[in-house]
Specification:
By secondary structure, the chain is of the alpha/beta class. It is 44% helix and 14% strand. Helix 1 packs across helix 2 (31-51), helix 4 runs parallel beside helix 5 (97-106) and helix 5 (97-106) crosses helix 15 (322-336). The structure holds 1,3-dihydroxyacetonephosphate and iron/sulfur cluster. The site of iron/sulfur cluster (SF4) has 13 residues, from loops.
Length: 361
């Protein structure tokens, strides 16, 4: 173990307790790996019960975390909603720091733990609260929408949050409420460009990038089309617009999962973080997953080992200054209070192929 103590053993009891999980993940996990993972999974699930804790696991967690110990799994929007309604005493965020901060902002009285506090995000790191105050001065009277991939300090300065699952809905609603036809949407430039093509509302964007999704380009999609002509290509809206233009579908990680589970394509490519395909593949054995993908180094900091340590030692506790939390809560809660969509929103690819300019800050 990380603290030098004896590794947990793969016993008959562990094997029995984890066998339904093994059945689910065995196409993606080797038997050798499982002998190391199963004892940790059993120990984590015991600790959760003892401590009245839940684990919120993002779609980019590896399968042994996602299927093995996640109580609630999903996209950023789904996890924020679950945090808001959770009655557990402890939330362990199997994801990155901005997600844990969002949980803390929504649940100030709960203990929120992140197994590795260095699990950051290039988008969240791209902008500060001071930047948002300057943007507000430069664009007085315009609503400011922040992607949830931001720090609590940034959320505290904006009017409402959004995720890739509801960005178009949020932009249109806030423009209607404020009686304006332009909205600031930050910090992801590509998400902003992709949203701009879905709406008549003018978008003012910041130049932040997701280091995972910015690496895909149109040439990648063209190569995939040539090599796998029958495959459905699904892209995340944090990708450059040229990638969405060339894809068959675009939506949040939950929307991509929904597409595969309902349409059951014979072959599929998920243009996103690598673990996503592994997790969906465990639930969709009839679909073949073609695997060009990029790893998120921040998401990959979270492991069974550090989740176990987090629960055992109540670490690392996420704290947010009370004043920042109160203001950030308003922005996140406004998003959560919006009527949920019946199915995760998809980006209309006909619209995505029309060029619409955004104003860059
Ligand atoms: P979703 O909101 O689609 O889950 O994606 C956000 C993301 O990239 C998390 O890092
Ligand atoms: Fe941030 Fe991109 Fe990693 Fe998501 S995938 S945590 S947006 S760097």
């Amino acid at each position: 173990m990380a603290d030098g103590s004896t590794p947990l053993a793969f016993s008959a009891a562990v094997e029995a307790a984890t066998s339904p999980i093994w059945d689910k993940v065995k196409a993606r996990v080797t038997p050798l790996e499982w002998r190391l993972q199963a004892p940790l999974i059993a120990a984590i699930n015991d600790l959760k019960r003892q401590k009245n804790a839940v684990i919120l696991a993002h779609n980019y967690m590896t399968p042994e975390i996602f299927h093995g110990v996640g109580d609630f799994v999903g996209d950023s929007l789904g996890l924020a909603r679950e945090a808001a309604r959770s009655d557990a005493a402890i939330i362990v965020q199997a994801g990155v720091l901005f997600m844990a901060e969002t949980s803390k902002v929504l649940c100030p009285d709960k203990t929120v733990l992140i197994p590795d506090p260095l699990a950051g995000c290039s988008l969240a790191a791209s902008i500060t609260g001071a930047d948002v105050r300057l943007i507000r001065q430069r664009h007085p009277g315009l609503p400011i929408v922040a992607y949830v991939n931001t720090t609590a300090e940034v959320k505290a300065e904006v009017d409402i949050c959004c995720t890739s699952a509801n960005a178009v809905q949020v932009v249109e609603q806030v423009a209607r409420e404020w009686g304006v036809n332009r909205v600031v949407l930050l910090p992801d430039e590509f998400l902003a460009r992709n949203v701009a093509r879905q709406t008549e509302i003018g978008i003012i964007a910041w130049q932040g990038r997701c280091e995972v999704h910015e690496r895909f380009d149109a040439a990648d999609i063209a190569e995939l089309r040539a090599a796998y002509p029958g495959a459905d290509i699904l892209a995340h809206p944090e990708c450059p617009t040229e990638v969405l233009e060339a894809s068959d579908f675009a939506g949040s990680t939950a929307a991509m999962t929904d597409y595969v589970m309902h349409r059951k394509p014979r072959q599929v490519v998920l243009i996103t973080e690598c673990s996503m395909a592994d997790n969906v593949a465990c639930d969709a054995p009839e679909t073949e997953f073609i695997r060009p993908c990029n790893l998120c180094p921040h998401m990959k900091r979270i492991s069974l080992e550090n989740i176990y340590e987090a629960l055992l030692r109540d670490r690392y506790e996420v704290t947010v200054d009370a004043d920042i939390a109160a203001r950030a809560r308003l922005a996140v809660q406004r998003m959560i209070d919006m009527p949920p969509l019946a199915v995760p929103a998809r980006y209309d690819l006909l619209k995505a192929r029309h060029h619409v300019d955004v104003e860059l800050i």
